[in-house]
């Protein structure tokens, strides 16, 4: 298998003098789900740097109805009563007469059942039967606490994630390696994603940028046949596009030429960017599992360490071709459930089932596959993700011992019996 062009050395180079480094956001307390550590001390520039944090616009919903404000009392007297006219008196008397006639009418028998039905009287509302109240579920309102946060978009959080789950059906990825690609293999794709993880670290990009870039590569390869010498060009261009979509200050074209060790020309990268966007019809708002994962972790009020462990599991799946056909929301839910099991924090709660739309039994098969991925290292040469999450800034979650397969299977069965 051919090796990527300078895939290892390129990502580890120092940036050119004068290049603005985007600071990384602060790592806050474990209970703050919005804080995201983006660097490891192994990067060439040194330890993690500060970055202005984005407000998470997808982590809240306003469930409590806002009471409309009462009208101010102006202190004025009420409106004057209109004077009665002769015409009004005549109409009122005729109404009273007709009402008395209606009340004196005999009741009508229903021909179908013989029951008596009283005629409806004018001026009296008909009382409708009220449905019995539904039993209350033990579901926590995770958005109520963010109603006063203008960056949380608490009013639209549920609608946003419902829309993202609907869009998942549009972005399902088939098995394109056997059908479309003749010159590249699954192993080459894994090497490319491993290199993209290093680029995300060295450029201090958001994790959403990495996930979207991998999605762009997969969707582009579904529609276009690729030669192996152009695979790294496609990967770097995908990061450029996703950076423009997700980042406040995305890297420039020269930066991507630099990390590729000038293996490609500027015109090639720009032409590839145009080709990818036109092939995908500029529809790149693709749902990624990382966004769902943060939402579900907030539903469970998971600590930052638990969320980071779930992120580590989820990021491992980026390199594995066998997981490209899984939906982003289901993959995120399964990663969080496995992280909860590894941390001995219980199982799938009613709140998680309500907000995710998945019952625990639907996730068990995928959870077992993920535990197998964490336990057995498929390719020892792909070290980027495990090395990244072995540092203290990521709580060294990659060093947590995985669960025994039989033990995990027994725990999942017990959870089903309890429910």
UniProtKB/TrEMBL annotation:
This is G2/mitotic-specific cyclin-B3 isoform X1. SUPFAM superfamilies: Cyclin-like. Residues 287-403 form the Cyclin C-terminal domain. Residues 1-144 are annotated as: Disordered. Belongs to the cyclin family. Cyclin AB subfamily. Residues 194-278, 291-375 form the Cyclin-like domain. PANTHER family: CYCLINS. The gene is CCNB3. InterPro entries: Cyclin, Cyclin-like_dom, Cyclin-like_sf, Cyclin_A/B-like, Cyclin_C-dom, Cyclin_N, Cyclins_cyclin-box. Keywords: Cell cycle, Cell division, Cyclin. GO terms for biological process: cell division; mitotic cell cycle phase transition. It holds the Pfam family Cyclin_N. GO terms for molecular function: cyclin-dependent protein serine/threonine kinase regulator activity. It comes from Geotrypetes seraphini. It comes from the Eukaryota. Transmembrane segments: none annotated.
């Amino acid at each position: 298998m051919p090796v990527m062009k300078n895939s290892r050395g390129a990502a580890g180079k120092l940036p050119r003098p004068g290049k603005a480094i985007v600071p990384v956001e602060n790592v806050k307390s474990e209970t703050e789900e919005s804080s995201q550590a983006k660097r490891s001390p192994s990067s060439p520039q040194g330890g993690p740097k500060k970055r202005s944090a984005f407000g998470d616009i997808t982590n809240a919903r306003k469930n409590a109805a806002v009471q409309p404000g009462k009208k101010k009392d102006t202190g004025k007297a009420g409106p004057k009563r209109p004077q009665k006219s002769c015409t009004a008196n005549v109409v009122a008397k005729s109404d009273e007469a007709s009402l008395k006639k209606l009340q004196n009418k005999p009741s009508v028998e229903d021909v179908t059942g013989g029951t008596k039905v009283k005629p409806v009287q004018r001026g009296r509302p008909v009382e409708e039967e009220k449905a019995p109240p539904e039993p209350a579920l033990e579901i926590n309102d995770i958005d109520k606490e963010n109603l006063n946060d203008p960056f949380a978009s608490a009013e639209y959080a549920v609608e946003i994630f419902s829309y993202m789950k609907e869009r998942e059906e549009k972005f399902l990825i088939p098995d394109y390696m056997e059908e479309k690609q003749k010159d590249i293999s699954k192993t080459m794709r894994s090497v490319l994603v491993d290199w993209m993880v290093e680029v995300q670290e060295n450029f201090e990009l958001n994790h959403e940028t990495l996930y979207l870039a991998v999605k762009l590569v997969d969707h582009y390869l579904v529609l276009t046949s690729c030669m192996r010498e152009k695979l790294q060009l496609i990967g770097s261009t995908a990061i450029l596009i996703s950076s423009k979509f997700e980042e406040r200050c995305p890297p420039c074209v020269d930066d991507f030429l630099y990390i590729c060790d000038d293996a490609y020309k500027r015109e090639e990268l720009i032409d590839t960017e145009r080709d990818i966007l036109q092939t995908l019809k500029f529809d790149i708002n693709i749902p990624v599992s990382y966004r769902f994962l943060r939402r579900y972790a907030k539903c469970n009020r998971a600590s930052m360490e638990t969320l980071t462990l779930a992120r580590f599991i989820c990021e491992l799946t980026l390199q594995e071709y066998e997981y490209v056909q899984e939906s982003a929301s289901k993959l995120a839910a399964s990663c969080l459930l496995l992280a909860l099991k590894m941390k001995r924090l219980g199982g799938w709660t009613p709140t998680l089932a309500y907000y995710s739309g998945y019952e625990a039994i639907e996730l068990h098969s995928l959870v077992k596959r993920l535990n197998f991925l964490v336990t057995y290292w498929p390719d020892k040469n792909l070290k980027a993700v495990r090395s990244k999450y072995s540092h203290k800034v990521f709580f060294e979650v990659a060093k947590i011992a995985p669960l025994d397969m039989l033990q995990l299977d027994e725990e999942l069965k017990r959870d089903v019996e309890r429910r």
